[in-house]
Amino acid sequence: MKASGYANNSATDKLKPFEFDRREPGPQDVVIDILYCGVCHSDIHSARNEWGHTHYPFVPGHEIIGRVRAVGNNVSRFKAGELVGVGCLVDSCRECEPCKEGLEQYCENGWTGTYGSEDKIGGTPHTHTFGGYSDKITVSERFVLRVPDNLDPAAAAPLLCAGITTYSPLKHWKVSSGQKVGIIGLGGLGHMGIKFAHAMGAHVTMITTSPAKGKDAKRLGADGVLISTDASAMTAAQGSFDFLLNTIPVGHDVNPYMGLLKLDGTMVIVGAVEALTKVSGVPFIFKRRSMAGSLIGGLPETQEMLDFCGKHNITCDIEMIDIKNINAAYDRTVKGDVKYRFVIDMGTLAN
Ligand code: NAP
Ligand code: ZN
Question: Which pLDDT value is given to residue 277?
């Protein structure tokens, strides 16, 4: 099946038009005409090979919203014309304990990412998966999600990664009404962290390096704003948070943030995969604090998150772009100049 998209060919190459093949639908497959695709910071890390394992040509995109074009003979949950989503995963072993529990993102035999993963399903004409910056995609039914009809499809696209990556740790660490939660970094993930923590009843503080984002943080649902570069404000806030969600996209000094936690508080890292500089034992030992990590979310929890968004009318704050402007959007994201997620209107591919 012929497909069009945008790809780059090296870490320093710009994204540009690219024609390729998608696999023809097998019995379990859903073919989706892509309407919108969010621009995650992970797309940029990968396109620029900042994590060191990118295969070129590389088609990014794992925040996909589209309409079902066709389904295979054994597909029971979807039919043509329905609004659906695809996130970061398109396959996993389906047999290990995490997969059986619906935690496919922790598959012990290696899950298949929507882009840049070795494709283990037969019939694919290329060795690595190509993502959602394209007009269509073929995905196994288990990895396709239902999108509530009341949500604006474009503003729902980033829920598929930014949404689930923030929802999952808030649920796993049982954030609830009355707790004091800090969201660190107001970007694509951070703005969804605020919305979800607020909807779960927590008292939410936006912890940001950008004083100019304070007003927006409150509009998004934050009760307070803490400027992380203001040493005296950080000192005054020591020992006051139950839970911190850290979305900073690069390695950094976590010690000032750890000190913000109360007794038994937890900080969850979702952004940085690089080394975190010299973590002191003091904040862990003296108040029994923890630091943990979390990776996106499994399929059942992603569906739960989408349904939660449908019920609470939660979508993302987006800036829609023509795919021809994708390279400028990458540069702006890296500078923190996005409110709060770029979404590609895939209709612009044909222009
Ligand atoms: P983003 O839109 O670029 O937002 C990141 C925000 O972090 C920035 O807007 C900025 O907010 C803050 N920031 C940036 N550099 C900083 C620095 N050096 N020190 C302190 N704060 C800094 O990125 P995103 O799409 O939200 O993604 C965030 C990270 O999560 C990326 O690394 C991405 O790859 C990763 N990610 C992880 C998962 C997972 O499953 N764990 C899933 C998706 C994405 P302020 O201006 O408010 O300070
Ligand atoms: Zn992502």
Answer: 85
